[in-house]
Task: structure prediction
Amino acid sequence: MSTYTAGIRWSRGATEKFTDNRYSRAHAWHFDGGAVVPASASPSVVPLPMSDPQGVDPEEAFVASLSSCHMLWFLSIAAKRGHTVDAYDDDALGVMTKNAAGQLAMTSVTLRPRVTFSGAKLPDRAALDALHHESHAECFIANSVRSEVVIEPRI
Result:
């Protein structure tokens, strides 16, 4: 078993009343390696100026964690199969809408990875699709969510 922690730090501004629901949602995520990430509610959920568009919101983090997990598995599996990966980028997209229970939820995430290979062993389309399929099956985050996760490799 493994455990993971994230520290969340927020405090009310000195001039904010709070009970009027007009307070800053800006906060920080603190991770065990020392990284501190500015975070906020999404401006599409909490209007400006009570949100900070420069902070990472939980919905973006959800999409990024799926994308990052998929990429890390993809790199590992590709290396084991003898494929040399030079670059990997993804412009992942999450969709938040009402689910079957009528609650707002991240109902789908589409990963759109583009991978650049070099060397003698280049995967064909079938091998590339198999790499992505296996990466998705191994991804801890994808295995932890109920949202549909779609992989659309870009060539």
User: Anything to note?
Assistant: Residues 58-80 form the longest helix (23 residues). The longest strand covers residues 104-111.
